[in-house]
Amino acid sequence: MPTLAPIIAANLLVEVDGAYHLIASRDRASGRTIFPARPDSDDRYDSVLLPPEGRLWSWTVQRFRPKSPPYAGPDAFEPYAVGYVQLDGALIVESRLVDVGFDDLRIDMPMRLVPHPFTLASGVVRTSFAFAPVEEAR
């Protein structure tokens, strides 16, 4: 696996046995899973790894530069896809969609979690996450 910039936030993303997983929290009382994970200091929750693959539940294309702040991307804005990915047996996660043309996206498309670089307003690069089509789905 390539060397990644530091992860953008604690308890977000981890690599286990060659696959990336998002970290979520499971409420000990209700069993409800939530993402992003709660801080480790919150003893009402246990950490759980989410499945690294799922299916595209819904998507859209962000075709205009979002309001800034909070958006801090480059001045030369380029449209990007955003979607909800249903992670089997877990929950639905909102994410950037990468490595796929807008016209190729389809509901129920198999997707996999991938690390994705994110440049902060300061110019510092951190690692976040995105979902890309499973190789066989292309």
The domain tally reads 1
| Tertiary shape | globular
Main sheet strand line-up: 7-6-5-8-9
Class from secondary-structure proportions: mainly beta
Mean pLDDT score: 89
Quaternary status of these chains? single chain
Helix percent band: under 10%
Low-confidence stretches: none
Q: How many beta-strand elements?
A: 9
Q: How much of the sequence is in beta strands? A: over 45%
InterPro entries: ChsH2_C, NA-bd_OB-fold
GO molecular function, one term: DNA binding
Pfam families: OB_ChsH2_C (PF01796)
Domain ChsH2 C-terminal OB-fold: 48-114
Using brief descriptors, characterize the structure shown.
4-stranded antiparallel beta sheet, ChsH2_C, DNA-binding, DNA-binding protein, mainly beta, globular, 5-stranded antiparallel beta sheet, 138 residues, DNA binding, NA-bd_OB-fold, 9 strands, single chain
Give a written overview of the molecule.
The chain is mostly beta strands and 138 residues long. It has one domain. 0% of the residues lie in helices and 46% in strands. The chain is built from no helices and nine strands. Strands 7-6-5-8-9 form a five-stranded antiparallel sheet, with no helix packed on it. Strand 8 and strand 9 form a beta hairpin. It is globular, with a radius of gyration of 16 Å.
